[in-house]
Amino acid sequence: MSSPSAAPETGPERPLPLDPDQRLAAEAIAASVLVLAGPGTGKTTTLVGRYRHLVESGTPPARIFVSTFTVRAAAELHRRIGDSGGETVRRLPIGTLHSLAARLLTRFPPPGCPPVRIFDDQACGRLIARHRLYHSDETKRPQDLFGAYKDRLLDPAAAMAEAKAKNEPDLIEAATLYARYQEVLSAEGGFDFGDLIVALVRGMESDPAYRARIAGFFDHLLIDEFQDINPAQERMLRLLRDQGAFLWAVGDDDQCLYAWRSADPAFILGFEKEWPDPALFRLSRNYRSTATIVDAAQALIGGNRNRHAKSLAAQNPSRLPVTVTGLEDDEDEAAYVLRVVRGLAGKGVPWHEMAVLYRAGHVGSRLQIALAEAGVPVVVRGAGEFWQLTPVRLTAALIRLIANPGDMEARALLGHGKRVERLLEQAPDKIDESAPWPALCRQVGRLVSSTARPPGEEGVQWRDLCYAAADLAAETGGLDQFIASVEEQRRSLRAAEAGGDAVVLSTIHGAKGLEWAAVVVAGCEDELLPHESAPDIEEERRLMYVAVTRARRWLVLSFVAERRKRALPSPFLRELLAGLDPDQIRWNDDDTRRRVQGALRSADTPKRAAFGDRTKPPPKPRKSGGGTKPRGTRAGRV
Ligand SMILES: Nc1ncnc2c1ncn2[C@@H]1O[C@H](COP(=O)(O)OP(=O)(O)OP(=O)(O)O)[C@@H](O)[C@H]1O
Fold first, then answer.
1. pLDDT tens digits for 80-98?
2. Of 3, 50, 253, best ligand 1 pocket probe by most atoms within 8 Å of the beta carbon
3. What ipTM does the predicted assembly reach?
4. What residue spans carry the region label Disordered (predicted)?
5. Higher confidence at residue 352 or residue 135?
6. 210: which residues sit within 8 A by CB, 6+ positions away?
7. How far, in Å, is the centroid of ligand 1 from the Cα of 36?
8. 529 CA distance to ligand 1 middle (Å)
9. Closest Cα to atom 18, ligand 1: which residue?
10. Residue 3 alpha carbon, nearest atom of ligand 1
11. 514 CA to middle of ligand 1, Å?
């Protein structure tokens, strides 16, 4: 999706004139069209152009479905498309692929399919709790387990067959729960989000008459972020395409960030082979960023092997340097980021034209607090407000409860359920109530971290959030100061968030499709970015790529030497800076330069080697002034 939603709400946008390549793509006549292009090349702008072209050529807006990855992106597209063809913008069929399925199912229920009654995440959670459909490995969230089956179009029988073939007790248990869940869900007449696409696909696959009834309801399907579709979504689009709908999609395999949620970049990589009457268009002018940023981004992404080659030529020739700043610890980093945003504001850059992005939610904790306390207006996106994140809330509430067993508010904050019961059971053994305040806080952080910690990357983030909360608590003088400081921080955040003109603080995932004049990427450290538990180094590199390509003019990259343990600069820093001349890099000091340039050696360890090509330095690309040629060739909501 696209861009300036960082700005405060405005009315519909005036359409941008398309460049010749964008126009060709927007006016393409083929059954299946893919516009494959890098960041900032105007994919979403071209999608809006396609929409206008169709409407101007006589297609009623109601017969064009525009799909976006998230509900928020749909709202943004409504704004960009504006009031077309006299239809009320609000009622135009623009939404996620789940909402496409919901519309079709409601309008055309498949034979034998009960009326669609959508259960949202909370309703599903209540159903799961009522029937106690929890995996014995409690770290596995039931909704995620069941959703992953649906993303792959596996019904309970297929899930069980797969589990038995692998002969893994964990999987057999999951498949058994899945079967039970589907039983109780359908007994209540409920459809969860994943069911919507599954039901539509099943109906269309099994009944030609039903397929024929759906045919022609939408003449055109316009799909944004095609790189992130999962197998169920791909199947649905293919069936609709087979019934005569024209598919027109934009995407960038280099921005696929959801492989962990069944998104499969193979769909975009294999488009020309797999789709009927395919036409592939490429856009290569980057309208967003300076030549420096484009060069750096190209050098970075050149390190990935599994990708389509794309050229990217910056339309803004500016060679304004990228700033790279090494700091001592996260407190220093927060103070630094505060100086950066104030400095930019001093130059007249509006707050909403600045973003601070990070890979993991806990990196945002100090930043949120430092900016909000200094009175800088902020809006927190992605993971959300620090003290409300589950591991943080549990840590803070348990610290309070242990320090004062009569604290009823803390007991309420802790909540209920098996996890909380286990925490309370283990607390007397694991926590020495008479320990000094900082030690007590850290003991609680360790307990919450080790109890009910989710597996994989989520578990590492859980641990980091618990430790970050415990550290912040430990730094206050004691219980009363802790309660007061959390209150104060939350009040500052609420006040800071009240205004529309605010600095965006976001995880990189939450920044997808957006752009700002200035972007700070904080926490550019090895084991954080790339994340220590991420299974796929190429997806980590794509994350860094998405982060840096959100910037139009100013790009600031910061890292610290110590974030609870000694930290090394991210090897990605060196990779991306390899695309720049020395005068395009501003180091805060020589030590930072030495540390970054030494980062590749540190990455060259047996542990790192497990990530395959991660230590391979990318070649220096040509400058984008003449067109840089790179080398080598849970889903949305209704
Ligand atoms: N033809 C054009 N002329 C001038 N500016 C353009 C043109 N096309 C796009 N832009 C501008 O380029 C920026 C990026 O456009 P857009 O968000 O559509 O790109 P995108 O390819 O969808 O980006 P990403 O994939 O990185 O999210 C926007 O600020 C947009 O206004």
1. 776 444 445 556 788 888 8
2. 3
3. 0.99
4. 598-638
5. 352
6. 108, 110, 111, 203, 204
7. 14
8. 26
9. 42
10. 17
11. 10
* For the ranges 11-20, 73-82, 493-502, 581-590, the one whose mean pLDDT is highest: 581-590
d(Cα 132, Cα 181) in Å, to the nearest integer? Answer: 10
Q: Where do we find the tokens 């309970």? A: 156
The residue type of 52 is R
140 is in an annotated binding site: no
Contact 261, 512 (CB under 8 A): no
Q: Is 40 in the pocket of ligand 1 (CB under 6 A)?
A: yes
What is this structure's pTM?
0.80
> Cα separation of 240 and 234, whole Å?
10
Distance 42 CA to ligand 1 centre (A): 3
The pLDDT assigned to 154 comes to: 93
Q: Which atom of ligand 1 is nearest to the CA of 287?
A: 12
Kindly give the number of the ligand 1 atom that is closest to the alpha carbon of 37: 21
pLDDT of residue 630: 24
Distance 41 CA to ligand 1 centre (A): 5
Mean pLDDT of the chain: 83
38 marked as part of a ligand binding site: yes
The answer to whether 472 touches 364, Cβ cutoff 8 Å, is no
The reported pLDDT for the residue numbered 121 is: 78
Is residue 10 pLDDT above 60, yes or no?
no
Scored b (16 or more CB within 10 A) or e, 370-404 reads: bbbbbebbbbbbbbbbbbebebbbbbbbbbbbbbe
| DSSP states along 371-424 | HHHTT--EEE-TT--GGGSHHHHHHHHHHHHHH-TT-HHHHHHH--SHHHHHHH
Average the pLDDT over each of 90-94, 201-205, 243-247, 423-427 and give the range with the smallest value.
90-94
Structure-token pair, residue 470: 């415990």
Name which residue leads in pLDDT, 373 or 547.
547
- CB of 5 closer than 6 A to ligand 1? no
Which contiguous run of DSSP H or E holds residue 465? Answer: helix 456-475
What is the DSSP-derived secondary structure letter of residue 614? G
Q: For residues 461 and 360, is the Cβ–Cβ distance under 8 A?
A: yes
Is 550 close to ligand 1, i.e. is its CB under 6 Å away? Answer: no
Helix, strand, or coil here: 263?
coil
Average pLDDT over residues 264-292: 90
Percent of the chain at pLDDT exceeding 90: 42
**Among the atoms of ligand 1, which is closest to the Cα of residue 45?**
18
Which range has the worst mean pLDDT, 132-146, 414-428, 453-467, 621-635?
621-635
Query: Which two tokens mark 57?
Result: 């050529």
Token pair of 573 as six digits: 């820093």
